[in-house]
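Open question from group meeting: does this chain pack into something compact, or does most of it stay loose? Before anyone orders reagents, we agreed to write out a predicted structure and look at it together. Recording both the input and the output here so the notebook holds the full record.
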Amino acid sequence: MQVTKSVYIVSGASYDLLGNVYAVRGERGVALIDSGESVAAGVIEASLARLGMGELPVTHLFLTHGHFDHAGSAAYFQKKGAKIVVHEGDAHWLREGGFPADTTPYGEGFTFPACEPDIVFRGEEILEFEDFRLKAFPLPGHTDGSTFYEMEDIRERTGSAPGRTILFTGDTFSYDREQAEDHVLLCWKGSPDYDPVRLRRSFETACQRFYPDVILSGHGMPLLANCNAVIRAAARKFLTAYR
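Structure tokens returned:
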């Protein structure tokens, strides 16, 4: 499914899989934002082929965080030549292949094939994929290394007008008009490194910092309008629950 001129959804709920996966189409290759579950690799490749990107190599994988439904196919794409990019706070999840049952309160483990990330960043960072610039903003709380990526779709530029600004938000929050009365879903609290104090600060930062045209989250629906209002609604919902 095409979202903007350069960005597509290639796996996730629409494919009966956990974790939305987004593809950024370049001239010489493809960058993925997250990689879904370990069983999603075939679906991602089939989607890329259907969308006319089957002959382009996946050269980069930018992870919003290291959970199994977002980093599960990272090792697969790394073996095919993709560079894995992740914040240092979640790099250990890739090295360890997720977390076993005894580290969560649910008695259930969430594991996937392990790999060593290629690029590990610490603070805010500008990361490049061909002519695209992805600005990485670490916003911990859901996990230690949860990250938003902000990107202009340069193919949508017209004259001096910039292309739409896209914000990939991972699992901090998502939007689904049919699944919640206020249309906003908050992140899962079961990760061993879930931290509501840090998440509160991250929501406060997000409200002040981001005014995107498009929000693409780790779950839920693409949001193509009223994006800052939805960020604020998610923050209010979290702050109310946190109190």
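Observations to bring back to the group:
The CA atoms of residues 101 and 109 lie 4 Å apart.
The chain has six helices and 15 strands.
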